Amino acid sequence: MSAPATQSAGTLLEVSGISVSFDGFKAINNLSFSIGPAEMRAIIGPNGAGKTTFMDIVTGKTKPDEGKVLWGDLSRNLIGMNEARIARAGIGRKFQRPTVFEDQTVFENLLMAVKNDRNPLAVLFFKPKFKDLAKVEELAAEIGLADQLSRKSGELSHGQKQWLEIGMLLAQDPKLLLVDEPAAGMTLGEREHTTDILKEAAKTRAVVVVEHDMEFVRRLDCKVTVLHEGSVLAEGSLDHVTQNQDVIDVYLGR
Amino acid sequence: MIRRIIAACLLLLTCALPVQGQDRTIQDVLQEHADVIVKSSRKTIAPAIEAVANSGLPAAQDVLEAWQAKDMWQRDSDGVFFKAVKAEGSAYDLLDFDTGGPVGQADKSELTQMKPNSGIRAMIAAALVQFQLNDPDPERRREALLAIQRDGEASHLAPLRASIKSESDPEIRALKEVTERLLTISFDPDEAARVTAIEGFKGSLSLDTRAALNPIVTTHIAYADGVGETANVKRELRAGSRDLPVAEAYALMVAAGAVTPQPSLAERKAALEANISDGSVAGIPLAELNTQEARDRAYAALADQGLVPDFDPAATEETAVQGVRFAEIYDEPSRAVTGAAEATLASINRAVGLNQFFDLSLDGLSLASIYFLAAIGLAITFGVMGVINMAHGEFIMMGAYTGYVVQQVIPDYTVSIIVAIPLAFAVTFAAGVAMERLIIRWLYNRPLETLLATFGVSIALQQLAKNIFGTQARPLTSPGWLDGALSFNDVVSISYIRIAIFVLALIFLGVFLFIMKKTRLGLETRAVTQNPSMAASMGINPDKVNMMTFGLGSGIAGIAGVAIGLYAKVTSELGADYIVQSFMTVVVGGVGNIWGTLLGATMIGFLQKGIEWFNPSNTLAAQTYMIVFIIIFIQFRPKGIIALKGRAAGD
Amino acid sequence: MDMFKKTPSLPIFIAVLVIFTLAVTFLSEAYGAGAISTSFVKTLGKTLCLALVAIAMDLVWGYTGILSLGHFAFFGLGGYMIGMWLMYARTKLIVVESMASAALPPTPSEISDAIGTQIFGVVGSSDFPLIWTFAHSFWAQIALVVLVPGILALIFGWLAFRSRVTGVYLSILTQAMTLALSLYLFQNDSGLRGNNGLSGLQNLPGADAISQDYISVWFFWASSLALLLTYLLATFLVSGKFGSVIRGIRDDEARVRFLGYSVEGFKLFVFTLTGVIAAIGGALYYPQAGIINPAEIAPIASIYLAVWVAIGGRGRIYGAVIGAAFVSLVSTYFTGGQAPDINLGFYTIKWVDWWLVLLGLSFVLVTLFAPKGIGGLFDLISHRMSPDRHGLPLGPDKGSLREEEAEK
């Protein structure tokens, strides 16, 4: 696969030559991909292109049959590490459907996500310090839920839950955010807000957005990677890839 | 010389084909030996018994039998022998030996009864053996042979050998040959013959063979200094080994007089107690004698005074037996015979071991079929629908009780079983459908709540069964043609009922596969399992499919109940005994796959039998270890033996 | 403290427990009017211990979403551990007394042999098994009350959680563990007297002169105190961030994992801690019951434990206490033969026979129609409402709260 053009700022995540198959179906086929430390990237592709499986592999949910996932300055291999360790290493993930703890308040959800010692004893004797509370409030303001802190998150609207989840991601203070279809089911206004949050986040960290919606991708205004049948089909600006004949065949020629 | 050979030939001939027409009668023979018969001494009687036995006369057997039974009387007036039967008063009916017919009566005072003592009766019995062995009725010959196998004697050997050649029935001839070898092993004075006979049994599985060989290799342990040069030593032993504990070795040395026994702990304590004076023993106050060390001191003081035997604390049993040789010695003096017997027993044990393995495999197989039967219904409800049904065991119990009730109505066991199987299916099918409609369908996707709710049903059903049928076990009797066992040899056998259960399990497997692969219900079930909403949009009613699937699983549990009830007692706890194993079977096998359930049942069945084999006395421990093994197994295959892979497995 | 603010029911519970304890004390035969018989004081003391283990169950199931069918095994193990000391110490006193009249004062090994014969004669043995090594020491056995079930829970939990067995699989696995343990204890050579179990535990060594009237009240106080401490501990656990995390695990453990929390570590922590709590409950329960045998550990006991929690209302600590107390007391009433029979004319309903049927059915009804259990009645007073989620539970996991169980 072709290496990405911009390597100047160094590489945060490098995925090389991974493959995985389920019962004979090759979900990911010799995929290579890399992203820098403060970069926004959109991943698009038709159904079954392997977008979600790619995220599963990076976050440790799925073990690939072969290949390496190298992370950070030390180029640590993430393969074999469990989800929690990968998350603590600095990779945050937002699922396609909003997954927040619906039985808990917005405050509890955010406080749980704020970066702190995660081992059970430390958690048991944890007392929120001023900086933790400040962080929660700051994030709540950013995602527009400042006045909803004491509400149970199960009662939030769909869009609010999406933002809360993004807020939880940011609270983890990850170096890399993996965001799966953040705009699904949102109104136009909500989408704009979401775009702003993501763009803001991408200033200080890497953000990978998996999205179907071309309009949303265009608004993100970033480099685009097109996946097809488990490998990279094209990469570049949105205009560049949409003129690529292969991409047109895959997307429109069906 | 030639005359003697001819005489011998004649004798044989007459033995084999008793020829009448000679003038000599049995009475003549008896009269010839009348003196010794009347004298009835064990030392001199032999020629008389021999003469009668070898007379070749048809009446010889009658005479011997009458003699042995003390029914032979001599008429005092003329010395003629008769068989006498008590008539009225002191009168006896006399029967002639040669004709067997009555020859009048005589008073007891005119007769003398022959009263052979037990030694003579035994000699007569030995002489009789040849007649029984040559009896025209094959059944009596067989009986005689089996009696000899059970309780053989040296004297049986000669008539047995003589009777082999003339035996016409091949089966009995084979039996005779085996019996002859068994007798040879035990009684033949010729060492070479015994060794040959022993070696002839290599690889035999017969219990009788082992019973004949085992006494030859019995041993006892002896203090080696007391063993003579000629002793047939199996091996030397040291005290303190597994076969010879120190205490036993010490006892042998004491018995041989090699050591003087030291006073034991109890004896020393008794000696101390006997020598208490003024609240102290040998000057040591009683209150201080609460340690062994103080007691030893007191005892030593007493010994110094000469009041008690000496005790040397250093001379323990361990030091006494140190370096002393002990020997394990065969009771049988001939080294060649014991050697051959050991070799043959080793080969027999190998063969027996192999056959025990087969027998164990059959046991494992039948246990596996039972687990499979118990688990298959669960595999459907749990595996296909993801519903855990704690009342599954109670459905099995309902099936068994249905069988019991049917047998109360229909006395014929064959017919009642044939009626009970579909009826049990119908009853538990209905119960399953009712439970699905009333409870389970409200709790889909809440398996933990389903587990607890069905547990509620389970305890209610169990108590209900207790209230209706009582707490005592009810019999579910299998038809007569299922009694007994299919026996391959003395080691390998399997009862017909277990074969029937195995066959039933195979039928279930077939029926299940047919339903799932070939019927509309199976197709719809698989569709609903894989994607309920898609199935619904294709016009399949998932409600109906779930109901039918649950009913099917429950119905199969009912049939399994009839099968299990046939060999286990029917109680209200019948199902509860199987429920955990059934869950294990499904979990180990892998959920959602009938072959997995089959493999799981096979694994658990064989495993349990295998563990029992290592520790046959303790089935509780076997079950414990099996469960521990399964818990560890789940570590390595959390999804079971046959696991669904990838996205199909769900989260 | 923070947890008082977050849990308004806490002071109420403390007040009720204190009043209850005082009331029982002043109505007992030992310290008051004698309106409550000694055996009923014992029943109440035992009930408090059951409430204690129900709190443990609620923590592991109601809050962490693990439907363990093995916590009664830990309860029983705790009872066995304290029972070993009680039995050893008391037998020793009896043996020493009977040997005092002998001509010679007994040696230590004679005493030990005599105790062994006394205790293990019933299973045809007289030697002390290895597991009785520390039976002579009260403090060692107290330590084992915590250590043995704790280590068992730790090993089992580590194996089970490490391989990510969840939901009903985990329930079945814990049930299997319980079955294995009870089958093992049923053997005569398990070293714990097989199906005879340990008996005579109500007699405290050296306290023969003290009437059971007093001892029962002392145990009642101890049970009450233990329940109070457990309640406070449980409230502390669930009210802070730890509570957030375990409730998160209950509703959606994958999400917790992606937040960077080691789900397995938290589950193991809760499983082991609650196992130890259960064991302490057992160590207080069985001296009041007087006897423990392997049947107590059978899997069905652990399922009943889950039933109590469900009937009381899962996910609220006072619910567990109420469920355990209510069901066990009502069971005692009905199975004890005190309840009057109902004559229907054609059939007489004997409650001894029909109570289990009623319990089973009422449990089905509670699961179907009243997921909040008895605890739901308090919501009528406190005006706690359930959210309207159109029947959806609060998370994707099998153990997650149901719509009716949650608070708006």
Automatic annotation (TrEMBL), chain A:
Keyword Transport: yes
Cited Pfam families: ABC_tran (PF00005)
Top-rank taxon, per record: Bacteria
UniProt cross-references to SUPFAM superfamilies, sorted A to Z: P-loop containing nucleoside triphosphate hydrolases
Stated name of the protein: Urea transport system ATP-binding protein
Organism, scientific name: Celeribacter neptunius
Protein's UniProt keywords contain ATP-binding: yes
CC terms in the record's Gene Ontology section: plasma membrane
This protein's UniProt keywords: ATP-binding, Nucleotide-binding, Transport
Chain ranges of the ABC transporter domain: 13-254
Entry's Gene Ontology molecular function annotations: ATP binding; ATP hydrolysis activity
From TrEMBL, chain B:
Record-stated family: Belongs to the binding-protein-dependent transport system permease family. LivHM subfamily.
Ranges annotated as spanning the membrane: 370-392, 413-435, 496-516, 547-567, 579-607, 619-636
Protein name (database record): Amino acid/amide ABC transporter membrane protein 1, HAAT family
GO molecular function annotation: transmembrane transporter activity
Broad class of where this protein is predominantly found: membrane
Protein's UniProt keywords contain Repressor: no
GO cellular component: plasma membrane
Pfam families: BPD_transp_2
Keywords: Amino-acid transport, Cell membrane, Membrane, Signal, Transmembrane, Transmembrane helix, Transport
GO terms (BP aspect): amino acid transport
Membrane topology, from the record: Multi-pass membrane protein
Localization annotation: Cell membrane
Segment forming the signal sequence: 1-21
TrEMBL record, chain C:
Location in the cell: Cell membrane
Entry membrane topology: Multi-pass membrane protein
Keyword set includes Nucleus: no
InterPro entries named among the record's database cross-references: ABC_transp_permease (IPR001851), ABC_transptr_urea_perm_UrtC (IPR017778), LivM-like (IPR043428)
Transmembrane stretches, start-end: 12-32, 69-89, 138-161, 168-186, 218-238, 258-285, 291-310, 317-334, 354-381
GO molecular function, one term: branched-chain amino acid transmembrane transporter activity
Keyword hit for Membrane: yes
Main location: membrane
Gene Ontology CC annotations of this record: plasma membrane
Keywords for this protein: Cell membrane, Membrane, Transmembrane, Transmembrane helix
Family annotation (NCBIfam families): urea_trans_UrtC
Protein name per the record: Amino acid/amide ABC transporter membrane protein 2, HAAT family (TC 3.A.1.4.-)
Originating organism: Celeribacter neptunius
